[in-house]
Amino acid sequence: MNAAAHPPGRHAPAPGFLLRLLEVRAVWEHYATLALRPAWSMAPKGDGHPVLVLPGLAASDASTALLRRFLRSRGYAASGWGQGRNLGMREGVVERAHDKLRALYLGSGRTVSLIGWSLGGIYARELAKHSPEMVRLCISMGTPFTGHPRETNAWRLYEFASGHKIDWHDFHGPLRAAPPVPTTSIWSPTDGVVAWRCSVETRRILAENIVVDASHLGIGVHPATLYAIADRLAQPEGEWEPFRRDGWRKLVYGDPNALRARPEAQAHAAAHPVPGIERS
């Protein structure tokens, strides 16, 4: 994809008050998906391979129940992470998630697709980097893998939940790197928790961005997100292709390149002013 994350060393502002206020949309998004349950059959059906779903910060498997129910309706063996609430990068959390991944892989004899919501997407990406031979596909939703935690509106909650104080110097650059497997980042320009530039995947091969108009708290249950996930998971293993934004999809899914065009043009103009013109 041509969309790029914000440059290293420059921090994107966390979403402002209006976007935070719009997070109440999550309730509507949840019930909209329930109302559309008779239409779930229109989403591509899968081949039954296992899918591990990882929840966001301070959330548990209950938050991904609707997503997993949808996945099972499409024929997948969807599992939660089984660790209760996600309280951050505490000791043993990633290791236990890896044990779950290994159990699904060995138990089914098939590679596993990973789906992570917000902080759960960080786990999904790291698991895919550690054991790519076990992973078929990695999908993150509203995950700030290119930015610092303080570029979100959840960093104080993270400090409280994890017991770890976050400093601007704590950023770990390796999180930016994409896994060596097909990777999809689903994000929203109207996310009220995570600055969308922190979720932009920049690797050109086997990686993509899908843009939906959703809240952060509802992106994992938004009808457009569920359809996009079903579309990605339904691809035959080893035959991955980027998401096609054509036909009716142009009305539902945003263009990540167009979203970045204006901010990048403004940044370039500020860095390279036209010579001979003085501002009064």
What does this structure look like?
The protein has helices at 17-21, 25-35, 65-73, 93-108, 119-130, 155-162, 223-233, 249-252, 256-271, and strands spanning 50-54, 77-79, 112-117, 135-141, 183-187, 207-211. With 280 residues, it is an alpha/beta fold. A six-stranded parallel sheet has the order 2-1-3-4-5-6, sandwiched between helices. The longest helix is centred in the middle third of the chain and has 16 residues, at 93-108. The chain is globular. The relative contact order is 0.17. Mean pLDDT is 86; it is low at 1-9 and 264-280.
Strand content: 5-15%
**How would the global form be characterised?**
globular
Report the span from N to C terminus: 40 Å
Major sheet description:
6 strands, parallel
Any chance you could write out the topology, listing elements then pairs?
Elements: H1 17-21, H2 25-35, E1 50-54, H3 65-73, E2 77-79, H4 93-108, E3 112-117, H5 119-130, E4 135-141, H6 155-162, E5 183-187, E6 207-211, H7 223-233, H8 249-252, H9 256-271
Parallel strand pairs: 1-2, 1-3, 3-4, 4-5, 5-6
